Every structure is written in C-alpha cells, then in structure tokens.
C-alpha cells in the first residue's frame, strides 16, 4: 500500500503583526501615562502606616520645607479655568497689577512660594526657569499678615460649591509654629478638615494593625 506523503510547511513565523501590536500598545501607554509634576523643593515627609491615594484634582497642596518655607499649589486637571479665577482674585484683592500674560503663566507654575511683592517676578519668569529663582516662602508667621489666608480664600471662591480638599505636606524637620500658622490660615477660612501627606511605612510588628492584617491574609 503506497504511503501518503505529507507536505512540509515552513515553521517560520511572520513577526511583523506582533511588532505592530507592540508599538501600538507602547504608544497607548505613552499617551495615557500621567507624569508627576516636579516639586518646588525636596520634602522628606514623616512616615505613616495608612495608605490613601492623593487626589489629582479639586485639591490645594500646602508644602512646608525643612527651612519652614511655605508653598501653595493647586491641583485641577479637569478645569484649568480655576487657575485663572484664583490668580485674578489675588491680583484684584492685593492690587498687584499683574499683566494678562503673567496671570496666564500661573497655570504653568508648579508652586508659589513668594510674598505678594515677589509674585510679579515669579509669574514673569517661564515655568521652566522658575526653579532658578530664590523663593523665600509665603509669609505666615505674622498673624496680621498671613498671606496664605488669601490664597486659600481665593481657592474656595474659584471652586465655588465644588468639593475642595486641602493637603498639607510638611518636611519632618519643619517647626511647629509654621505648621500652626498654616492651620490658622485654614481655620480663618472656616476650613477645619485637611489631609497630611506622609511617607508609607511598614506596620509596626506586633501592633493591633499588624495582627489585623495577618488575620485578613
């Protein structure tokens, strides 16, 4: 009985479609990834065992560095007009005489850490070059001239009836009087709830939290 010969087929695989798919996936992640904006100063935050994701919008970040300098920044990815409302309110209430171009630059400014008298120079500098400027911090220690109060007040006006969260990110070496002055500015604006930004530490071994985690696992 004659044997049946099976036609031999090439075992080579055309990888072109796979390469195309890989580049499509890579392009998607590049376009969809949100990069963390640079911080105005290096902050070494205290540790905490509670993990909670920071809001990416509708939030105000108040930063206190190791030299007790205070910085103010806004998180509003969804509605960029909030930046315009805040800086227009500051310009009007403090009679700063900012130009439209300077006020427009506020949207690109990572954080404000100067007194009102230095705001015109800061906003007159391109965002990429602002890191070269020496920011002395927003004055807060003089209760009669706590300028952070005005930044918080204008933020509340800009966000209107929307929920606005306040975040305080303080260096572990910062002093209590500065932190107290920051909280005072919030209280004067009738804001009594805020979140402290900390570094995530391991749960202390043997603590109730540690025992609870082990039971859950």
How would you describe what is shown here?
With 217 residues, this protein is of the alpha/beta class. The chain has a domain at 57-200. Helix content is 35%, strand content 12%. The chain contains 7 helices and 6 strands; from the N terminus they run H-E-E-E-H-H-H-H-E-H-E-E-H. Helix 2 (81-94) crosses helix 5. It is elongated and about 105 Å long.
Structural class: alpha/beta
N-to-C SSE series? HEEEHHHHEHEEH
Give the assembly state of these chains. Answer: single chain
DSSP strand (E) fraction? 5-15%
Q: Which ranges are low-confidence, i.e. pLDDT below 50, for 5 or more consecutive residues?
A: 207-217
Largest sheet: 4 strands, mixed
Summed over residues and divided by their number, the pLDDT gives a mean of 80
Total strand count, please?
6
* Order of neighbouring strands in the sheet with most strands: 3-2-4-5
């Amino acid at each position: 009985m004659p044997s049946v010969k099976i036609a031999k087929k090439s075992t080579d695989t055309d990888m072109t479609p796979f390469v195309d798919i890989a580049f499509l996936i890579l392009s998607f992640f590049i376009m969809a990834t949100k990069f963390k904006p640079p911080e105005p100063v290096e902050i070494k935050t205290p540790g905490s065992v509670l993990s909670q994701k920071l809001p990416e919008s509708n939030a105000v970040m108040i930063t206190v560095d190791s030299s007790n300098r205070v910085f103010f920044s806004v998180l509003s990815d969804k509605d960029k007009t909030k930046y315009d409302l805040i800086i227009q309110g500051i310009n009007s209430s403090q009679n700063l005489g900012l130009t439209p171009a300077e006020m427009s630059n506020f949207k690109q400014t990572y954080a404000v850490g100067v007194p009102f008298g230095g705001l015109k120079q800061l906003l007159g500098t391109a965002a990429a070059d602002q890191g070269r400027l020496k920011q002395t911090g927003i004055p807060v220690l003089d209760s009669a001239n706590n300028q952070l109060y005005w930044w918080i007040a204008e933020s509340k006006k800009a966000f209107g009836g929307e929920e606005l969260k306040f975040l305080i990110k303080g260096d572990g070496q910062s002093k209590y009087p500065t932190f107290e002055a920051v909280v005072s500015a919030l209280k004067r604006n009738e804001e009594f709830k805020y979140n402290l930004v900390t570094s995530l530490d391991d749960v202390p071994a043997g603590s109730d939290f540690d025992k609870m985690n082990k039971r859950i696992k």
